[in-house]
Write a structure and sequence with these properties.
This protein has 79 residues and is of the alpha+beta class. Helices cover 19% and strands 13% of the residues. The protein has a two-stranded antiparallel ribbon. It has a two-stranded antiparallel sheet with strand order 3-4.
């Protein structure tokens, strides 16, 4: 993540870019996704989307979808 300071004169001027903080590979950078970060209102923090690692993909919770659960409930209650 880089920053460039700009001049306050009537003509446009800017300084060399400086690195704000190191970013490692793995941060989501898809051009199709648009901007994948935001800055806090006070300008002191960033929120960035980070790609899931292979380990975290395997450890995510599973979702179970039950169809016709009212029928299933009736069958359980009838027993």
């Amino acid at each position: 993540m880089m920053a460039v300071s700009i001049g306050e004169a009537a003509t446009f001027s800017y300084n060399n870019p400086t690195k704000l903080f190191p970013t490692t590979s793995g941060y989501y950078k898809s051009p199709a996704a648009g901007r994948t970060f935001d800055v806090s209102l006070d300008g002191q923090r960033f929120l960035m989307i980070k790609d899931a690692t292979e380990t975290s993909r395997r450890s995510t919770a599973n979702m179970v979808v039950v169809l016709n659960w009212l029928d299933l409930r009736q069958r359980v209650v009838e027993k």
